[in-house]
């Protein structure tokens, strides 16, 4: 079973943009999503569902 995945957004540019990383805890069935710092630095970045963008980037992924 896959429990970790990079998350991309398609449609903002010619190629998909990495926006974060999702990790599922198979024991609890709960997941955690972390925005990438490079995505949050974009002027067109958005944080769905009213999330506070600063709290959700625990690791830097992508470029």
Explain what this protein looks like in three dimensions.
By secondary structure, the protein is mainly beta. It has one domain. 6% of the residues lie in helices and 33% in strands. The chain contains one helix and three strands, in the order E-E-E-H. The protein has one helix spanning 37-40; strands at 4-9, 17-25, 30-35. The chain has a three-stranded antiparallel sheet with strand order 1-2-3. A hairpin with a 7-residue loop joins strand 1 (4-9) and strand 2. Residues 53-63 have low confidence and may be disordered.
TL;DR?
The protein is mainly β. It has one domain. It contains one helix and three strands.
How does the SSE layout of this entry go?
Blueprint: E1 4-9, E2 17-25, E3 30-35, H1 37-40
Antiparallel strand pairs: 1-2, 2-3
Shape: elongated
Work out the oligomeric state of the chains in this entry: single chain
Q: DSSP helix count?
A: 1
Number of domains: 1
What class, by secondary structure content? mainly beta
Q: Span between N and C termini? A: 27 Å
Stretches where pLDDT is under 50 for at least 5 consecutive residues are 53-63
The overall pLDDT, averaged over residues, is 77
Q: Strand content of the residues, in percent?
A: 25-35%
Along the chain, the helix and strand elements come as EEEH
Number of strands: 3
Strand order of the largest sheet: 1-2-3
Query: What percent of the residues sit in helical stretches (DSSP H or I)?
Result: under 10%
Largest sheet composition: 3 strands, antiparallel
Radius of gyration using CA atoms only: 12 Å
